[in-house]
Design goal:
The structure is a single chain. With about 650 residues, this protein is of the alpha+beta class. Helices cover about 75% and strands about 5% of the residues. It is built from 24 helices and seven strands. Strands 2-4-5-7-6 form a five-stranded mixed β-sheet, covered by helices on one side. A hairpin with a 3-residue loop joins strand 6 and strand 7. Helix 3 runs parallel beside helix 5, helix 12 runs antiparallel to helix 13 and helix 14 packs antiparallel against helix 15. The longest helix has about 70 residues. It is extended.
Length: about 650
């Protein structure tokens, strides 16, 4: 095995494939007596060549896998899967990267290699961060930190990565403690002679300063940024110094010291231009432009606003692109060029709407993720309660068995044991009854809390709508509020019900239509509502998506069907037929065709289509003296 590895590496070396590596590294690799270390080194070559020559990276990875399997070394195999995941990650193939990381993680856990497990968990957290799945990313990184602290390896890097996740998600207050711990560890490392620690001190201090800057705590931002700058200057790290100067320029501008902000900003730009690979900073360019604008120097302000706009377009930074158009409009307005000002203001408005839609979709995704987490927590709590019941039942069985043995051995005191057994059974049954009641109470309390949380979200949406002037934005927020209400009603019924196992559709639909009629200011004299559910009762996993679909269909009818209609009629019918749940929403309004709905590209229709696929529902739309929407659900669960 040892000779095989040496031959492989020498062949690559002589062919000129690895000339870029240090000779000392190759000597150490080839002269090592540990075959496992050679496999690890082969796998690490993958990262060395990942960007410069992917072909070499693939070759070394294949050789590392072959050698690990020949050695039957589980650590080497896990390390190879980790490096395979790293390679997929660098190529942007996140799906295969996650698959490889999962294989490495499974091996680490099976063979209890906690040090490598912490590194793999760190990699998965970084992957989730790149996919903007910040909650999952933080969860994996916390697991990585726990393992790293247990084995005493890789703590500083994981702390920094966890803080980066919170920073990217905008949770700067949670990021600061982890950056601070990373700073403290770097200071300790520097005192012990760690050569990498001084540079990490500067990075950690700069990150803490940036977090305080985002939180507008300027005194603390200045303190940590100056500390980082002094550290970088001692190390003659011009790249770090340029970043620190840029942040100081932004801070001084926020303090109103425009002259000092310009001086620091120009110094940072001058340093950056002398360095390769340091990208232009939209934050700094925008701050310079704002500083010149504050001094009334509109010519220089326009220059840097325009530079910021170009850089933002190149990096696809919609926020700074939007802000640049807004401020350029102000510069043109100050110069009396109202036509150009209006042109940039229109572009600002378009970008502002785009950012709002992106944020709205992100909020919906986060709400869905939060709901899924809460549902999983409820399931865990229910399973825990069931396990307690099983434990009590097992204890009772053991007790009864012991009594039988005692009765066989001590026949003379049979009556005593019978009496004692009877008393114990009574107590056990009473305990079981109390435990079951506690479980029912707990389940109702969970639904009550979920309902309260959804009402809070609804109230927040209402407050947000009150701050908006854009009619379409307000309408979108109100529609989101109605959707949240539809879910809240489900949990309200569950916690009010004697048996929280399911939802009666008749009660739920009367509450839902009542809420929507109130929301649109429609009375019974305007639109008559008829509901027929045949006393069906569905479980929560069916009612939530079905409730959202019905919310959209009823909303569409109330908004569009009864325009200029003196007396409207809305009918909702449900029936189980031939192993399918048939749902029908009909109105006598002006009518709409399936083709028109499918071409509408509306968000509500997208919700209906998405949730229909989840329920395996067939949709049919009839236009006959109004609109009738028919759904046939194949995936549903009735509660008896």
């Amino acid at each position: 095995m040892k000779n095989l590895l040496i031959v492989v590496l020498l062949a690559w070396f002589q062919s000129g494939w690895v000339n870029c590596l240090e000779a000392q590294e190759f000597d150490s690799l080839l002269n090592s007596d540990d075959d496992s270390m050679k496999v690890v080194a082969l796998a690490d070559l993958v990262i060395h060549f990942a960007n410069s020559d992917p072909g070499k990276a693939d070759y070394f990875l294949n050789e590392a896998f072959k050698s690990a399997r020949v050695l039957e070394d589980t650590f080497c195999l896990a390390h190879c899967f980790r490096r395979e995941g790293n390679l997929f990650y660098l190529k942007g193939d996140y799906e295969n990267a996650e698959t490889s990381y999962d294989k490495a993680l499974a091996i680490c856990r099976a063979y209890k290699n906690e040090q490598l497990e912490s590194r793999v968990l760190d990699n998965i957290g970084t992957l989730k961060q790149r996919q903007s799945k910040f909650e999952e990313a933080a969860d994996y990184m916390h697991q990585a930190l726990e393992k790293a602290e247990k084995v005493g390896f890789g703590i500083g890097g994981t702390l920094n990565n966890l803080a980066n996740i919170y920073t990217l998600s905008g949770d700067y207050e949670r990021a600061i403690p982890y950056y601070s711990r990373a700073l403290a560890m770097s200071l300790e490392g520097a005192s012990k002679g760690n050569v990498h620690a001084p540079r990490m001190i500067g990075h950690a201090a700069l990150n803490i300063g940036e977090c305080f800057l985002k939180l507008n705590i300027l005194d603390s931002a200045i303190y940590y940024t100056l500390y980082a700058k002094e550290n970088y200057e001692k190390l003659q790290d011009q790249r770090g110094a340029a970043k620190a100067l840029a942040n100081l320029s932004v801070i001084r501008r926020l303090e109103g010291d425009y002259a000092q902000a310009i001086h620091l900003g120009l110094e940072s730009l001058q340093l950056a231009k002398a360095l390769e690979g340091l990208g232009e900073n939209e934050d700094l360019l925008f701050s310079l432009a704002e500083s010149y604008f504050g001094l009334g120097d509109y010519r220089n302000a326009m220059t840097y606003f325009d530079q910021c706009l170009q850089v933002a377009r190149k990096s696809q930074n919609l926020y700074f692109e939007m802000k640049s158009h807004e401020r350029i409009a102000h510069v043109f307005e100050a110069n009396g060029d109202l036509l150009s000002s209006y042109d940039h203001y229109k572009k600002f408005t378009v970008l502002k709407d785009s950012i709002f839609n992106i944020e709205k979709n992100g909020q919906i995704e986060r709400l869905n993720a939060r709901y899924e987490n809460e549902r999983k927590e409820r399931q865990i709590e229910l399973l825990s309660s069931e396990n307690k019941v099983r434990e009590l039942q097992l204890d009772r069985s053991i007790t009864i068995r012991n009594y039988i043995i005692g009765i066989s051995a001590l026949i003379l005191i049979f009556a005593f044991f019978v009496y004692r057994n009877y008393r114990l059974k009574q107590k056990t049954n009473k305990d079981l009854s109390l435990l079951l009641e506690e479980r029912e109470t707990l389940l109702k309390e969970i639904h009550h809390r979920v309902k309260n949380n959804l009402q809070i979200i609804s109230s927040l949406l209402k407050l947000q709508a009150g701050t908006l002037k854009d009619t379409s934005a307000v309408e979108a927020i109100n529609e989101g509020q109605n959707r949240v209400r539809s879910m809240s009603l489900i949990h309200q019924q569950l916690y009010q019900s004697e048996d929280p196992g399911g939802v009666y559709l008749d009660e739920y639909l009367h509450d839902l239509t009542s809420e929507l009629f109130d929301a649109f200011g429609i009375g019974d004299e305007d639109v008559e509502c008829r509901i027929e559910t045949n006393k069906l009762r569905l479980d929560i996993d069916t009612v939530i998506p079905l409730g959202l679909i019905l919310n959209e269909l009823i909303t569409n009818s109330l908004k569009y069907a009864f325009v200029n209609k003196k007396q409207g009629l809305l009918e909702i019918r449900m029936n189980e037929n031939d192993s399918k749940l048939e749902v029908e929403v009909a109105d006598n309004g002006k009518g709409v065709t399936l083709e028109k709905l499918q071409n509408s590209n509306g968000f509500g229709w997208k919700i209906i289509n998405s949730l229909s696929r989840k329920l395996k529902a067939e949709i049919d739309i009839l236009n006959n003296e109004g609109t009738t929407v028919q759904l046939k659900l194949s995936r549903y669960k009735l509660v008896v």
